[in-house]
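User: Structure with iron/sulfur cluster, tokens only please.
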Amino acid sequence: MKLTLKIWRQGGKYKGEFVSYVLDKVSEHMSFLEMLDVLNEELVEKKETPVSFEHDCREGICGSCDMVINGQPHGPMRGTTTCQLHMRHYNDGDTIVIEPFRAKAFPVIRDLVVDRSSFDRIIQAGGFISVDTGQAQDANNTPIEKTTASEAFDAATCIGCGACVAACPNASAMLFTSAKVAHLSMMPQGKVEAKRRVQAMVKQMDEEGFGMCSNVTACEAECPKEISVENIAKMNREYISAVFGSETSV
Amino acid sequence: MKLDGKVPPGSLGEKWTKYRSTMPLVAPNNKRRIDIIMVGTGLAGASAAATLGELGYNVKCFTFHDSPRRAHSIAAQGGINAAKNYQNDGDSVYRLFYDTIKGGDYRSRESNVHRLAEASRNIIDQAVAQGVPLAREYGGLLANRSFGGVQVSRTFYARGQTGQQLLLGAYQALSRQISLGNVEMYNRHEMLDLVLVEEKDSNGKPVKKARGIIARNLLTGELERHAAHCVVLGTGGYANLFYLSTNAMNCNVSAAWRTVRRGALMANPCFTQIHPTCIPVSGDYQSKLTLMSESLRNDGRVWVPKKEEDAKAIREGKKTALDIPEEDRDYYLERRYPAFGNLVPRDVASRAAKTACDQGLGVAPTGLAVYLDFEAAFERYGKSKAHATGLHNPSMETIIDLGRKVVEEKYGNLFEMYEKITGENPYIMPMKIYPAVHYTMGGIWVDYNLETNIPGLFVTGEANFSDHGANRLGASALMQGLADGYFVLPYTIGDFLSREIRTPKIDPKQPAFEQAENDVRDRINKLLNIKGDHSVESFHRRLGKIMWEYCGMSRNEQGLLTARQLLRELKDEFYRNVFVPGTNEEYNPELEKALRVADFMELGEVMILDALNREESCGGHFREEYQTEDGEALRRDDEFAYVAAWEYNGWDEEPKLHKEHLVFENVELKTRSYK
Ligand SMILES: Cc1cc2nc3c(=O)[nH]c(=O)nc-3n(C[C@H](O)[C@H](O)[C@H](O)COP(=O)(O)OP(=O)(O)OC[C@H]3O[C@@H](n4cnc5c(N)ncnc54)[C@H](O)[C@@H]3O)c2cc1C
Ligand code: SF4
Ligand code: FES
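Assistant:
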């Protein structure tokens, strides 16, 4: 099939603008990123600067790939990262608009590449259990109910891609932050420092310049790992209980 | 050069405990004055950096990724082994040790492997304490499954995302050390050279020690000098040399290779692992291959049609798997290896798939695919589920439906991934799979301390050669990476560092750093100035084709000689005709790739020489000249029970072979049989 791509170029000779490219011979079996590889190879052979985009695992787990495709972070398929999107979902003659994740806390580095180190700093603020290597007791001394373990797992599958932020009209990082807060506080090992954790992580999130949550839930709809907004509710409860020092949920 | 593995004395079971209890320590006040460079934040790197930080060392940690959490380890699917014997099925440290030595086809060091098996138990404890959500049974205790090449159930897992969860555990531990100021993190920094500084040893003899690295800031292109008392690599494997592999796109050998160019040795580079269950190649544009976890072989049955005409009809789209009646299917692994069946080790399963396809029985249009079928598992699980829920006389349809749900719970994300990529529903149509390059057992030569022949340079995880011999068993790489990082290196590094407590801070302004920085700049300029006509990618693809064709699943002398010739021609063309756009002083992924592909080509040649030298078949290395009558690998212990460690000084010099002879005191060398 033949496609027209309108891609955001920024850096080098581009000040920040959409540039159009026409690509012939796109096979329906290609992944979206392989389609961009083909474009880039053409650009290089023409001695032009290829389009920068972030990618690594190409199987939906590393969280590197990060573009907005026709207005949707990671494109049209539910629960799918850009690298897992295949061209069989497009038709001959389509025009595809590709731009970077846009958020104050994710400055653009080049073309489609943004800086998401703010996420690292949120984790550094408290997204861990304070245990040194070698301090652990035998693993089976801490039985965990299967459904609890499974729910904690669901929250823990966040890949840190930032689509939730890109999808949110306020560029809020609540889904990302709450997924980690929920994962750790659901496990008995993580309960001990739950109060300190939630406060520290929320504080860091605010300092990074992410917006407020106004319950739009676009984050959940665009999250490639289908992380539930229930985690946000959980985090809010934890936060309130931590700040007001009361154990009972408010 | 004599290679000394520095294996401590004592009986196998006591060596490590005794060594650890008697080795020199670095006192806490001295640790604060010692700087360590850790390159890599995968399971090996993140766990080591976190632990060294906890111990009180000053750690500088590097990754070329934008965040430590994106290391390739994140993609590991199936699980991690540990000799916990929670299933009470006869597992033990010794059995894990034995399985690993045998699985590796008797080409690894007994002492290292036993230590690995010992540490395996602590890893699970540590991970659970960190909050890693490993799979559990209804009673709340940890669940296990089986992997290839073993007869016990010792693999711990987190659905099909075990690597992700373990890496996030290590990443979080590392994040904590970063927030405490014990680790300084350098994201988007690529190590491009190792710096050796010449000093005098205690006898006044000159000795070169690893004292720093040159790293390129990938956002600005600036070359930075970083100095430390020692350097540790956890930079992963080199499977991407083959272009198409299951590894993440950016995995590369450059950090490790640059240490070889400074005198470290590349050990057993021809030991590469081809994984039997990957999604087959579908077109020329393809950028990588996707693994379908080995855990699927717990429940999936591998088969091809018995009749060539059926296979042909399937390839032409005239029939599907569902049209082939049971009696016309050849479950060839179950037939050839009744004792282990579908769970034979990877090398055996991969070769068997190749044999079937070579006989014209392949089931994809390319002729290169076999089936992995879950029908029997649907039925088995469905029946048991129906029974458990009190359903009497359920119809076959109900049973299969129930069974599908059980399988979905176990492998849901893998089935989904398969469907996304192929567009086919594996709950209805059996999966099509084919072997693909996956892992590299070879790597930088290290001794028992994980130290290379360069004093002060340590290598951990997949980047070293140490524990898996000629073939790695499934779920053992995660185990090794974390054992090295959490429980081995933080101790053994003390052997070197306890002798360095009087060494002042290393000065990055000294000539050795300047020289190394200039070397890197020259390499970069050379590539930028070629200004040829073809992309780096196109050369990488061609390199991969040569290596897969002649140094892949099976090798022979003539092919290897041809490959060497082709590789040299490719290299000449690369340095004449590659085009690297842009400049050094900017974010330039094409330049990053060019540097990596240049190093892959050099390693490729050593790999070919290693494969030529090893005139035997063992593990992942199958030399066609050396096979038994029924096509099994023919090992030659009398001549080849050694580690081949290569010294390399560039294209103009013949690489030099050094041998470490392997001593087996505890296991008897046997023909590996899974029949
Ligand atoms: C698809 C897949 C599934 C797998 N599943 C399993 C499994 O189920 N069980 C199992 O045991 N094993 C599995 N493996 C193997 C296992 O994942 C790897 O062997 C292991 O994760 C390697 O870990 P590592 O820490 O050594 O290296 P990596 O995770 O590769 O990390 C390398 C690190 O080094 C950094 N780095 C590299 N070079 C440089 C440089 N020059 N400068 C700066 N930084 C650098 C990278 O940024 C990265 O942080 C799987 C592998 C694949 C490909
Ligand atoms: S919550 Fe979802 S969208 Fe947000 S970072 Fe995690 S995986 Fe990405
Ligand atoms: S490239 Fe890893 S998630 Fe897309």
